Amino acid sequence: MSEQTAHPYPVHWEADVVLRDGGIAHIRPIGPDDAGRLVDFYEQVSDESKYYRFFAPYPRLSDRDVHRFTHHDYNDRVGLAATVGGDFIATVRYDRTDDAGRAVSADKGTTGTRAEVAFLVQDAHQGRGVASALLEHIAAVARERGILHFTAEVLPTNRKMVKVFTDAGFTQQRSFTDGVVHLELDLEPTEQSVQVMRAREHRAEARSVQRLLRPGSVAVVGTGRRPGGVGRTLLRNIVAGGFTGHVYAVNRSFPEGGTDIDGVPGHRSVLGIGAPVDLAVIAVPADRVPEAVADCGAAGVQGLVVVAAGYSETGEEGRARQRELVRQARSHGMRVIGPNAFGVLNTAAGVRLNASLSPEMPRSGRLGLFTQSGSIGIALLSGLHRRGAGPSSFVSAGNRADVSGNDLLQYWQDDPDTDAVLMYLESFGNPRKFTRLARRTAAAKPVVVVKGALHSGSVPAGHAVPATRIPDSTVSALFRQAGVIRVDTVTELLDAGLFLALQPLPAGDRIAVLGNSESLGLLTYDAALTAGLRPAAPLDLTTAATPDDFAAALGAALADPGSDAVVVTAIPRVGSEDAPDPESGDDPALAEALRRTTAAAGGGKPVVVAHLALETLADRLGAPGDEAASRIPAYSAPDRAVRALAEAAGYAAWRAGSADPGRIPQFDDIQEAAAADDVRRLLPPGEAPEGGIALGDADTATLLGRYGIQVRGALPAPDADTAVAAAARLGYPVALKTTAPHLRHRADLGGVRLDLADEGDLRRAYDELTARLGTPRELLPVVQAMAPRGVDTVVRAGVDPAAGAVLSFGLAGAPSELLGDTAHRLVPATDRDAAELVRSIKAAPLLFGWRGAEPVDTDALEELLLRVSLLTADLPEVVAVDLEPVVVSSRGLTVLGASVRLARPPARTDLGPRALSSF
Fold first, then answer.
1. Cα 357-359-360 angle, rounded to 5 deg
2. What is the pTM of this model?
3. Quick one: three-class SS letters along 651-712?
4. Per-residue pLDDT, 281
5. Mean pLDDT score, 490-503
6. Could you tell me if 364 and 347 are in contact, meaning their C-beta atoms sit under 8 angstroms apart?
7. Comparing C-alpha atoms, which of 38, 46, 126 is closest to residue 86?
């Protein structure tokens, strides 16, 4: 067997990676067909870099060298290349060694868990983070092939390469011998190495979006010679929006010598422009896009906005065309917004970019907007404009084949022009990554999301993401833990965004309500209670209240330390001499009074207005103007005003607590190694049955016991005499219950009889049970000792293929299931997560002494939740845990029923080396 065919070509090692400057490189294994590329690459490397690689002058590669560096067995000898436009820009290679550093050979039966690694980066691409990206990928390859350690020898003057190794975050040892720095890296990922990788990912992806949203020059490819058409419209919008950079029109039908299109120079190709082009907006038909992308790649364009349709939204052929678009663009180092995109906007004074189909440049604002739908994008821009607000930047990504909401989160997190993020999402490409990025962004600025396509069970047409069926409750848990404000409609998205754009966050949930309508005040009061706020009794100023009356009451409420926010309710004034015409919907004096009073208070406490029949007043309150007058969000219904305020208050509370997210406790009695041995024994190697393996009662009890979770035993009762004998062993009182799958946990069907005090009670219950529900063989009855009285609850953990392990809690019984009263948190849960989980269900008062009942032991309940969380976090093969019922009493708890399912865990998409999605 030749070394090249020892392992098949590992296509799964290929990846597109965003580099430090925002450009893209393609990483792939090196093969025999790369001989010419390797020689060309080496010729462009400086003599100094060659010396650093080989520790001696090495002007050219011999034929033997070329053969060695292009022929690998993809096991003991592996080479990876980073390419741009198909050309090598960097290479890395490892050779497996034994512990003594000698090369190993499968043919000779030698092996080892170490490898020597070496890099070579073309000088023109040094400083772009290519070597760091290659190290992440070659380390992942090595771990896959059983290599645990890398060794490297570097000349001390090669400081850049020494820094690549030392900054990677791996556990390492460093020594200096014979004028050479000797480095040894432990390839097991560490918390530091993961943090380093994610920090690099953040900087690189943010930079790649910045290149799209802050270009210095833009070319519109597909600009028509006559007015009308998409390309000409885009060009007009860019020019009319006041773009501060250079603009070019491109159409292959233009004259050879160039032309002029409405004052914009026109060229036949991007390459023919003869000047740098940062962003190309492609508006040609789908069948001509490949030619345009190739032209852009040759011209060194940094990014593309593809508005052309005819891709995944049209079916399989279009989906293949979309994949090829992304592949082609990335091969030239370009990122893609689209295809089928509405476009992008940046309102910053130094940019003023309207590369979209929006006919007007919106007013500059502090909101970052992302949508996956052009029509929703139009609605959001229009809604903000009508209410006096605007975006800092806007992206409508269409089919989002490449750039997604995750990339925009990376950018907006550090964007000084963005104070809050609004997103309309119809699909998740990488839910775990979204949760991680959203949580990090939300720690600094609010993120508001409306999730569409909740009940379709499929990904909307054209979206380049794998189909997932994440339950809506899991989506809510993802958002809640990440600090994301989730709303249900686009109107609520705008309402929340308007509040966050114009007002500070409330310090608490105490609300003052004042206005000139008693009825509107009471509606506001009720809405505040429903939203979980704590409103004070409304202050009725009467319909004759003047602007000065409003100002005095508002000033007092803002100065009151007993309130955290103020809701002003307003209807048309009547009964005062200066009252405007009620039909006008306006009250300039009132608007001025409210804005001035709010500004005079210093702006530390939020104010919102709920009005009826005062639409023009609302426009005045939110309009830009005198900096000394605060802008106040106004809503045409009290429930909308209160909902926006409540969302902001909830986010403020999350953000205040995010500095201390809690800790993941460690319990001394957990036997993780023994539990792992149990799993290996119980889950056979190879392919497990579809859906995994359900453990028997004994194995379930043993595995749970390893994590300190004790299940109360039950004895089988195939007949009445055996049931009586079992009860004698356990001691009365006992419970008799069925364990047949169709009756399990269905006390409402009469399959459970409790508090059987003696043999007579037990025999009667047994006879009634079998007479009503079926034979003992059908019912599989068991006898179990009674648990102390308490509240019956359910604790579950399950693995969602997209979101990961999810911990769930609720009360046992049909009402909770019917009403969906179950809370969720992602695993691993902290002690704070467990406490919130117990308190976040609607029926939580039953645990805390509702109607004079004795409170139950919630500390024991929270500990159980944490133990289940650790079990599923430590052992990914445990894909389902179901504890039902868990009876929580005033002291302690009892697990009366338990089931565990084992299966091969779904592949993690968030722990490997950084790479762009390839859907």
1. 125
2. 0.87
3. HHHHHHHHCCCCCCCCCCCCCHHHHHHHHHHHCCCCCCCCCCEECCHHHHHHHHHHCCCCEC
4. 98
5. 94
6. yes
7. 38
